[in-house]
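Here is the promised in-class demo. Please do not try to memorize the tokens; focus on the logic of going from shape to residues.
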């Protein structure tokens, strides 16, 4: 299997769309469908469980990426399938892949850095607030 065309920029930035193989089309269709289903399953999971606030936010962020990525992928697959001049080009799949990777990177950063910081801030506020006087009702 010769992978040298993948390295060539002319392969990716050719504006005249080329018909994909039926196997590749089916694989992309299944991938995008699974992304949409995974997004829905994650949203249902968060709704039906009592999770810690930041864990739920992280899962919902991944669900949003999966849903938006799946729908966007279906749109790109439609343009490629219909061989539409500019929007059916191969580089849109690269743009899609880079966008999803960047979004996942932001969620991972939130999960590793921001969420623990916010969790510690909430705990320190709760610790301070228990000693503050409250309004009597």
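The designed amino acids, position by position:
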């Amino acid at each position: 299997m010769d992978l040298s065309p993948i390295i060539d920029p002319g392969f990716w930035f050719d504006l005249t769309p080329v018909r994909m193989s039926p196997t590749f089309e089916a694989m992309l269709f299944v991938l995008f469908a699974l992304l949409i289903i995974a997004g829905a399953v994650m949203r249902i999971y968060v709704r039906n469980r009592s999770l810690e606030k930041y864990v739920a936010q992280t899962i919902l962020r991944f669900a949003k990426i999966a849903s938006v990525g799946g729908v966007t992928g279906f749109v790109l697959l439609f343009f490629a399938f219909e061989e539409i001049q500019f929007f059916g080009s191969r580089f849109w799949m690269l743009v899609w892949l880079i966008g999803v990777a960047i979004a996942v990177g932001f969620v991972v950063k939130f999960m590793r850095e921001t969420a623990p910081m916010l969790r510690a801030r909430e705990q320190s506020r709760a610790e301070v607030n228990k000693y503050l006087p409250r309004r009597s009702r």
